[in-house]
Write a structure and sequence with these properties.
59% of the residues lie in helices and 16% in strands. By secondary structure, the protein is of the alpha/beta class. The protein has a five-stranded parallel β-sheet with strand order 2-3-1-4-5, sandwiched between helices. The protein is globular. It starts with a strand and ends with a helix. The mean pLDDT is 82.
Length: 174
């Protein structure tokens, strides 16, 4: 039985909030892929690593984080939509170790959100996508995750309840 949850969303703040609530509900711990990345490469932060090593290097390191975090039990790993690229080669590992949940909005809403973040040029290489690119990433994630939840117009509690219902449906629980 899968004992971990991978929570993927375009908005790290939403996924962290949902993960914290899920952790309380399921008695699990939360790991954040970006915090783990920055811990591994301290004192450099994500922006510095993209600048020094490039976006592809950083994406490969995120894939490694997904792989090694699967060694833990009872964790919720929070990841960003950029993981659609980094995890393509890891979906078999993810599917065997994680219940994977994809939280998404419309590609246009996600693009608008990402543009409003005013990221550094380095982080734009990693996170900023057009609506068309986001649509492709969403399709990849919807095909390769166990559960997909559209969060458009929902409150945090509604997102949480839909996510819990999706996870329970994977285990055929009521």
């Amino acid at each position: 039985m899968k004992q971990n949850i991978l929570l993927v969303c375009y908005d790290n703040d939403i996924s962290k909030k949902v993960a914290d609530k899920l952790a309380d509900f399921f008695s699990m711990r939360v790991l954040n892929a970006y915090e783990l990345f920055e811990f591994d490469f301290a004192p450099r932060n994500l922006s510095q690593m993209v600048s020094e090593r490039g976006a592809d290097y950083v994406k490969n390191e995120f894939a490694k984080i997904v792989k090694y975090s699967s060694d833990y039990e009872n964790v919720i790993l929070v990841a960003d939509i950029s993981m659609a690229d980094t995890c393509k080669d890891s979906f078999n590992k993810i599917n065997s170790d994680y219940v994977s949940v994809f939280l998404h909005d419309t590609p246009e809403a996600e693009e608008s959100f990402l543009r409003k973040k005013n990221l550094s040029p380095e982080l734009n290489k990693l996170f900023l996508y057009s609506a068309e690119e986001l649509k492709v990433k969403q399709q990849v994630l919807q095909q390769n995750t166990d559960c997909s939840v559209c969060i458009s117009g929902l409150t945090l509690m509604e997102v949480l309840f839909k996510t819990i219902a999706g996870i329970k449906s994977i285990y055929d629980m009521n």
